[in-house]
Design goal:
mainly alpha; 2 domains; two-stranded antiparallel sheet; 10 helices; binds zinc ion
Length: 190
């Protein structure tokens, strides 16, 4: 192992909820630096590597380790649910950060020409694990759910709900229903 987590990084990861044993397992698998989480990339992949890991912990760890992939999403995701953003008959794309209208040659994934941030938030698909900008997965067509609710989507998926029903179910769930789902996520360990 040529690089290892620094003491500070280990402490941060433990504060996020990783146990000493889980840390050791990660290092054994080659996830031994903050940068290597970038290769892990997604909450789904992290859960595949460490199946016993609490999905909420996995989400927090990746939020810390891969800010580009996740940090902007929680703030933006709620906004994206509002039906006006990015849906325009002229196909115009407006920056999720500064709302600047992107040029005609804009392609999904480009950085905003005005503020330099990701014009569209990169979301992660609960169904197939792909990630990309926009409101739907380009790989399987599932509508994206907020990153913070990914573990809930995985739970509903395991319950056997259809791909198209899961985002709707989450959008319609009351706070109380979501609390119950979180309870199941924490107890059941996906
Ligand atoms: Zn911008
Ligand atoms: Zn997908």
């Amino acid at each position: 192992m040529d690089s290892e987590f620094t003491l500070l990084e280990r402490n941060i990861l433990k504060a996020k909820g990783l146990s000493e044993e889980q840390l050791t397992n990660l290092v054994d698998m080659g996830v031994s630096s903050r940068a290597s989480f970038g290769e892990v990339g997604t909450v789904l992949t992290l859960l595949e590597l460490l199946p016993e890991l609490d999905p909420a912990v996995a989400t927090r760890v990746l939020e810390w380790a891969v800010p580009a992939a996740v940090t902007e999403a929680p703030a933006v995701s709620t906004a994206v649910v509002a039906p006006t953003i990015n849906v325009d008959s002229s196909d115009a794309v407006f920056c999720a950060s500064c709302n600047y209208k992107q040029p005609k040659d804009y392609t999904p994934g480009d950085l905003c020409v005005n503020c330099g941030r990701q014009a569209e938030p990169i979301e992660q698909c609960f169904w197939c694990g792909s990630s990309g900008p926009g409101r739907r997965c380009r790989n399987c067509g599932a509508a994206f759910v907020p990153v913070a609710e990914l573990p809930l989507a995985l739970l509903l998926r395991r319950d056997g709900l259809a791909k198209d029903d899961i985002p709707r179910r989450l959008a319609e769930a009351t706070a109380e229903e979501k609390d119950q789902l979180w309870g199941r996520v924490r107890r059941g360990r996906i």
